[in-house]
Amino acid sequence: FSPSPSIETLSDIAENSTDQTFRVIRITGSNERISFAKELVANKIKEEQLFREKRNKKYRN
User: Fold this and answer.
1) Bigger pLDDT: 40 or 25?
2) Which of 10, 12, 23, 54 is 20 to 30 A from 34 via CA?
3) Where do the structural domains in the chain lie, given as residue ranges?
């Protein structure tokens, strides 16, 4: 069993996936392993990016 690709940005989806509809992946910065359609993965990436931005703002203030 090969490790799941780790993706951080939306462009990583295209680089790390094939035409398979479902894949198990791990979002960079998250301990969750998810198996979803690409659209749901894209939404999760956006959530993680927002979370990181909020966390970074909090530490800058």
Assistant:
1) 40
2) 54
3) 6-60
